[in-house]
Amino acid sequence: MIEYRKVTTTTVEKLRKILKNDALLIYDDTESLKSYSNDESGGEYYANMPEVVVKPETKEQISQIIKLANNEMIPITPRGAGSGLAGADIPIFGGIVISLERMNKIIEIDSENLVAVVEPGVVTNDLCRIVSEKGLYYAGYPMSVETSFIGGNVATNAGGSKVIKYGNTAHHILGLEMVMPDGEIVEYGGKRRKDSSGYNLLQLFIGSEGTLGIFTKIYVNLIPQPGKVVDLLVPFESVEKAISNVAPLMVETKSLPSGIEFIDKKSIYYASKYTGMKLPYQDEVESYLIVQYEATSLQEIEELYEKGGKALQKNGAKDVFIADNRSNSEKIWRMRRNWLESLKAVDPYVPTGDVVVPTSKIPEMMKYINEVSNEFKIDIPVAGHAADGNLHPAPLKPKNLPPNEWKTLSEEILGKIAMKAAQMGGAISGEHGVGFIKKELLKKTKPKQYKWMQEVKEAFDPNNIMNPGKLF
Amino acid sequence: MNQEYKGVWTIAEVNDGKIETVSYELLSWGKDLATKLNVELSSVVISNKAENLDSLIQHGADNVYYVEDEKLEHFYPDVHTNILKKMVEDFKPEIILASATTKGRTLMPALAAKLNTGLTADCTDFEIEEKTRSLIQIRPAIGGNVMAKIKTITKPQMATVRPKSKLPLAKDENRKGKITKIKYDEELYQSKYRWIEFKKDKTSVQPLQQADVIVAGGKGLKKSENFKYLQNLSKKLKGAVGATRAVVDMGWIDYSHQVGLSGKTVSPKLYIAIGISGAVQHLAGMSSSKYIIAINKDPEAPIFKVSDLGIVCDALDILPLLEKEIKSGDKND
Amino acid sequence: MEICVLVKQVPSTDKVQIDEETGTMIRSELESELNPLDMYAVEEAVRIKENTPQTKITVVTMGPSSAEYALKEAISMGCDEGVLLTDRKFAGADTLATAYTLTQYLKDKQYDIIFAGERATDGETGQVGPSVGTQLDIPILTYVNKIINITNDTITVQRAVEGGNEIIQTQLPALITVVKEINEPRLPNLENKLKAKKSIIKIVSNQELKIEEEKLGLKGSPTRVVKVFYPKISRNGEKVVVKTPQEALEKITSFLKEKGVIS
């Protein structure tokens, strides 16, 4: 185990010199430092204070900071919007937090090559909005777009609701400019769409959760805007019926929806309480699917929802509701989008599981989650991206249970569910990443791969300066 | 051909005999226009009772036309429209301004239809075109994204005016004017409506659009219970509580509090936006407030672009303190 | 019971481009949809139909031929038929001319209730509804947030007005504009959506209405847009990142004192 050194006032002076602007550094101010001590993964349970927070504005500053950290053996934790759900941006060894909030420029939208070049601190939602004004589309759509940064999306290889049609974040990244763990600035990929010259290191860094360097520039793939969107809200009498429709829907209609979301009765209960709205059949059904289609013309979109809707009806949907304008779409999505917030209203530190299984195994997975819920007598609402087999079970703390006991218990519950997913040919994390919360599960479920991952890490970062304690 | 139309009118609002502030705001606009046109400014009062009509003169009116009858206790659109139609035919004003309140926005379209003349809704500013002496009516359109200048080619030229878009003139006790009481035949007071009752809204001290101060909350308040801070704070500031569409949709507070594109448009003296990020739809409803204070933990929130004072911090951290420490502005308290 | 709902199609985006030279909206690229505030009027009509046997709902709009989609959206929510008043001569109408055209179509129909939304999200005037009611010489009930009772010849409603709710009754037929809190509009289901798609919209042009041209469109409009300009909304305010709640309170208090809001 490497011994890290503490941040001293001399270190802080050196950092100040690099940044040349006192506003870009937080030290000796507990209140301000505190907001960099945790993320959305579990609030106070996992929080740890950074010793100093820096908000660099250039890649050169980042490079110098990392060189300094190597010299002084101080750990670095890179941080985006702090919306992570696996604790990857919590400074568990203290040290320096490099917050990328100031690296938030959209450098270029290249309509000719269909590429956007952005800094990591750009809010993904802003990117989506700005490219849409030019008739373009960023298809990587994590559900937390209103807050998350594109840099964090790349670091976790985020998914979201549109993976079935467009793939996860890795599919949309054409290039990265990075500051490596030794401080060197290197570009991987770029505006080119093909490259078979040597190892594809680009893909290695996507999902590396800040352990292999810091992104300073991201080349994002853009596609033409689909233009027409329709959402189907589909209630089902049972979870099995809902889930068993997912694969056949795509097979029977021979068309890919851009997303199929799943939400269960318990989730609807909390989301309904939080949003004050009611979905049709809310008290009679066990679950809903939200199916979204995208197309370029009105005629095409009408054909899609008719075909899809009929297939769902034939296979046991209680009804099929159609939203092809903003007001109605908003109605359909409001509960799903407010899912996590509505659970947080009941349990502020609700932990969120992130298991993924082959699509055909979702019914089995749901059954298992239900068994675990009964076994531990814990309420576990589930929502997820049904089209790609990614489920988010969210166990809720019983009112009387003390927080420290709940931390152990909830980890056990989510651990059990994750292990089951891995056994089914799935994985312990679909889109949130491993961070430090799931590293034991990673080791257990991918023992041989874990060893090779460690080899890679050591090759890039022998001092283990970059985001230590995450993944490994 | 419209030469015979002369003078500026404002429609006063009276509630239970008391003249509402919006009536003075209208006079302030009316005075501007009447001075430019060198004509008289008249205020029309239609009510069963009215206290202190002199105050209309003291706030700028040259004439007060007071249509008084015990049958005029409540606002019946048909009766008020018929009375005004008759008055306009008799007196021929060139400009009629009413407040963009629920009353004004009901009465004026009806009156314009009866008089077969133009009407511009929810104006925030006026000009007089020198050459033609025409009224240029300025109003925000398309969610406040653009402003439109509108002209009416018929007479009278009619507009509803956004409450709080202008301060009343200072009261001048020495100002003289004429109060004319008018009685009409019984048949003009015949209504197809029957008033039943009025249920007061308890949450707000005063109606949103007439408040000098609005304390508004958004999703940053985290839950509906936290609106109690806003309610107490707004009471102390003699203001009203506003809200974003998101929290109204979530049932945290009634729709009557919603500010924005699909809610109300307000221009108070002070708007305090708490935990509101400032979606364009919301900004459309409040960006013309005189002063805006924004409290939001996201330093990049668009609300800061329109605020005079922006406080970057979690609203919930400071609300309890704010509610406790802010003292009422009323020295008599 | 015979019910009519007046609706409008509006651009389905907030980002409306204006040609500053001509002051007109650049409509070419615009998608349009049923005015969201009209959905509450449609929903209220459909709810009456569900509780009152033999009720028929006709949804009416004036607009370009593409406004058919707005009508079909209303039909998919439960309206029975759609009528589109469309003619080149109707173009450029202000609220008075629009209301006049609608009135000329409605005047010989026997509707018990005519519903409209509070206002459209594009023009935001809220004037067409009350103007139609007045031109038809029937009572107008604006800002209705609850229908309390309907009998054969009366209707009792609650209106959202400044400072509270007013309960008032009037005779039928009447024109009613509703506000958002009156209900929660339903989502159309597939069956109704397909039915609406197949429904035939009745097209009415001026050949049928025979309105004199001076009363139509731009010619019949007493108001004219002289100029359109972009307002400056950003202020150069102060933005402070506060460290403690106390600091925030001090900032706010001194601002309020300076502006004379508190003493």
From TrEMBL, chain A:
MF annotations from Gene Ontology: FAD binding; oxidoreductase activity
Database matches in Gene3D superfamilies: 3.30.465.10, 3.30.70.2190, 3.30.70.2740, Uridine Diphospho-n-acetylenolpyruvylglucosamine Reductase, domain 2, Vanillyl-alcohol Oxidase, Chain A, domain 4
Superkingdom of the source species: Bacteria
InterPro entries in the record: FAD-bd_oxidored_4_C, FAD-bd_PCMH, FAD-bd_PCMH-like_sf, FAD-bd_PCMH_sub1, FAD-bd_PCMH_sub2, FAD-linked_Oxase-like_C, FAD-linked_OxidoTrans_Type4, Oxid_FAD_bind_N
Ranges where the FAD-binding PCMH-type domain occurs: 46-225
Transmembrane segments: none
PANTHER family reported for this sequence: GLYCOLATE OXIDASE SUBUNIT GLCD (PTHR42934:SF2)
Name of the molecule in the record: FAD-binding protein
Organism name: Petrotoga mexicana DSM 14811
TrEMBL record, chain B:
Cofactor info, note text: Binds 1 FAD per dimer.
Protein name stated in the entry: Electron transfer flavoprotein subunit alpha
Family indicated by similarity: Belongs to the ETF alpha-subunit/FixB family.
Entry coiled-coil feature ranges: none
One Pfam family it belongs to: ETF
An annotated GO BP: fatty acid beta-oxidation using acyl-CoA dehydrogenase
Record organism: Petrotoga mexicana DSM 14811
Domain of life: Bacteria
Automatic annotation (TrEMBL), chain C:
One Pfam assignment: ETF
SUPFAM superfamilies according to UniProt: Adenine nucleotide alpha hydrolases-like (SSF52402)
InterPro entries per record: ET-Flavoprotein_bsu_CS, ETF_a/b_N, ETF_b, ETF_beta_N, Rossmann-like_a/b/a_fold
Gene3D superfamilies per the UniProt record, alphabetical: HUPs
Molecular function (Gene Ontology), one example: electron transfer activity
Residue ranges constituting the Electron transfer flavoprotein alpha/beta-subunit N-terminal domain according to the UniProt record: 22-213
Entry-linked PROSITE patterns: ETF_BETA
PANTHER family linked to this entry: ELECTRON TRANSFER FLAVOPROTEIN BETA-SUBUNIT, PROTEIN FIXA
Family, as annotated: Belongs to the ETF beta-subunit/FixA family.
Name of the protein described by the UniProt record: Electron transfer flavoprotein subunit beta
Organism: Petrotoga mexicana DSM 14811
UniProt lineage: Bacteria, Thermotogati, Thermotogota, Thermotogae, Petrotogales
